[in-house]
Fold this protein.
Amino acid sequence: MKRAPVTAQDVADYAGVSRTAVSRAFTPGASVSAETRAKVQRAAEALGYQVNHLARGLIRSESGLVALIAAEIETPYRSALLSQLAQGLLAAGKTPILIATDRSDDSVRQALQHAISYRTEAAVILSGMPDSALCDICLRNGMRLVLVNRDEARKGTLQIRLDDHEAGVTAFNTLRRAGCAALALVSSAAGTPSLAGRIAGFRHAAEAAGVTIQERSTGATSYQTGLEIGTDLLSSTTPPDGIFCVTDLLACGVLDAARCRFGLGVPADLSVIGFDDIAQAGWESYALNTFAQPTGEIAATAIDWLSDPDGETRVVQLPVRMVWRKSVRVPA
Amino acid sequence: MKRAPVTAQDVADYAGVSRTAVSRAFTPGASVSAETRAKVQRAAEALGYQVNHLARGLIRSESGLVALIAAEIETPYRSALLSQLAQGLLAAGKTPILIATDRSDDSVRQALQHAISYRTEAAVILSGMPDSALCDICLRNGMRLVLVNRDEARKGTLQIRLDDHEAGVTAFNTLRRAGCAALALVSSAAGTPSLAGRIAGFRHAAEAAGVTIQERSTGATSYQTGLEIGTDLLSSTTPPDGIFCVTDLLACGVLDAARCRFGLGVPADLSVIGFDDIAQAGWESYALNTFAQPTGEIAATAIDWLSDPDGETRVVQLPVRMVWRKSVRVPA
DNA sequence: CTGAAAGCGCTTACAG
DNA sequence: CTGAAAGCGCTTACAG
């Protein structure tokens, strides 16, 4: 019972065939007689044999591995996307490796090197941004790269992004149309490209409309930050009556500050819009108007591109859809 | 720029040493002169070389891979545990592979076979239960197994579980002490060992105290189910004033049913206790009294055992701690 | 400290 | 259809 994994040779001996035959029995479309294949299959079953993908990957130089690189994977949006990616990859016959980072660029660097070590066929990056040099090394090592919600383009990669700017504009217009007079924009200190896009969109729309808005961006992109900023905003002498939170987590915090701490009615006294459409946005306590991240589509797009042997440099911009619930006043 | 990964031979040529030297330069503690090592390091840097772990794993017969097998990985508790596990594994020098299942036993079977294919050194199972035969095959292939919150013991595995029964008892006592007269027990149709344990504890305590309780268990273990059961329970002619939900997700649903649909005050009109201590339990809208899953400890225990070369069959029962917030009335 | 050689478990031309 | 042989990229005794 020592660690003595079953090998193709064992199966060959047991079945009375060559190990070449065993190999072929496990290769779809290889030329083996049905009889031999059956014999091998029986032997494999009896011995509990599984092809060693490490060895197979080595010789075919395709490991079947795909690295998923992300920070804060316990977060609702992140885990939802990861789930889609993992399931899609598995369904496509690939095996996801999970590399948790701390969103620093150095952390992505390590993650990518890690991925190279395992000769992953690709890496899907959800957090942080690798520099060009690193990307080149990956490419040179035959690795495909897909960047999700990252901003800068990199040669040879697939970049999937949303129309964040547009969402910011829509958020502004929606709040105005709801009759909100004092608008606020809530963000975190993270400063990732997608958050920046939403902020810019909202700002531009406000400028174009000639209205001034309050802005807050401190701390992590979390519920806690939303709670703090919300409390701060609402206790001012000129509290906003319409808030766009760049993230649902932030929005939930703002909503709780409004309701639990100030006894405000939503949307009667305050309208709030979020972004991501995490599960909690649909919970009755929040019933948050938000923008849906098309996680399924993101995953599908990534996997399609990876399945295409000659996927060239590409940027895919996915449309973002507003989910209307009950946190924004309906114009009379 | 074809997929021509850099090899140790390339580095050797570039550095003007043998490929044995290259290998040694990347093996901690190997006997190489500092000079050679430096030369190799420089060459590797210039070429963007990373040791091929597939090949190294093959020859050392230790892949460095650990499979994480779980269903519903986008769920708060699950993703929190996965995050801890992934980070811990990475810190311990292991690489996590993520296999999403659908919690059916057949799905775990496939997952495990998948793991064997990659010669993972271990598999951590969070969902589903492999049968004995399968466990044996894993063991025979030199794979370690850790079962989290699974019930039955399997030879050669590490089993980590919580004192679910005790939690059920504590929930009952807490609700009684809070003065609740009509108690209900809310669960799902999942029937996993941990849920069953909590149910049993609550039931036993009730029987011992001679009080009858209402029970509901339908649907998935989700917010939605909690909302439905809560609505159903609260619209009866004899609504409960104290509810133990076997899971926080369920509890959040019940809480929302009570507040949003029946205008009930919590804990004034209704006391609720959950289990898991997911992030949302701490959000102000819920402020849920619950039992904390020691995810950090679970991960640490698993990784410790995996790091111990001769980890024998073991069952570790972790204590579960009640987190007191505001969803249970404080006895006068 | 260093390198030539054997071997990890597989696959894939190459003959038959 | 089948098997003996070479080779994927690495590591590790084995000599020197």
In short: Chain B has a mean pLDDT of 93. The longest helix of chain B spans residues 193-209. The first strand of chain B starts at residue 65 and ends at 71. Residues 5, 7-9, 19-20, 22-24, 27, 30, 51-60 of chain B lie near DNA strand D (CB under 10 Å from a C1').
